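Our preliminary data section would be incomplete without showing what the modeling component actually yields. Below, a chain of 196 amino acids is followed by its predicted structure, encoded as tokens that our downstream tools consume directly.
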Amino acid sequence: IGRMTAPLASHFAEIVGVDVSDEMIAQAQTLHADIANLSFSANNGVDLADYPDESFDLVLSYSVLPHLPPEVAASYFREVNRILKPGGWYRYQFWVGPERMMAANDTLNIRVYDPQAFNTLNTEAGFELHEMDEIDYLDPVLQIKPVWVNVKKVGPARLDVQLEDRCEAEDSEDEKLLGQVGPNPNPNPNPNPNHN
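Predicted structure:
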């Protein structure tokens, strides 16, 4: 809804906010209609095809990439390289530490890239790492802190990623089972019938 995007409008000539949710984009457009240099657009969840090559000086991503399957994240890295002008900057929030990957359809939990995978992703995407700053938040589950990453476009992306036209998660096995079970026939919320 533009909570991160709108404050940037006073610092740049033009700002574009992108999200996969049409509803979030509609809300952002309504909430920030009074900011002339700010626009919002829904994308397909796979790429940034609505934007021409080399049309942005800076791309910013917060709390998105670590939730995406690695192929989708790699696709976005490739696309960010494509839309950045030569020498443009990509600033994004990420998790680097002991590897933690999730099922491809899990977009809720956080993926952690090990340092080698992190470096390879950036290099193959045509970026040069300039700065990595720890964010002052220790995740209670992961026991690591996320980082802000600043990379500069230094060449073309060499990532070969094949994705569907639209990124849509399939139901997990648990979700499929829940759909088969239906509503709980026992209205008693107490799981122990011998204890009231």
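The beta strands are 15-19, 38-42, 56-61, 84-94, 127-134, 147-153. The longest strand covers residues 84-94. Preliminary results of this kind motivate Aim 1 of the renewal.
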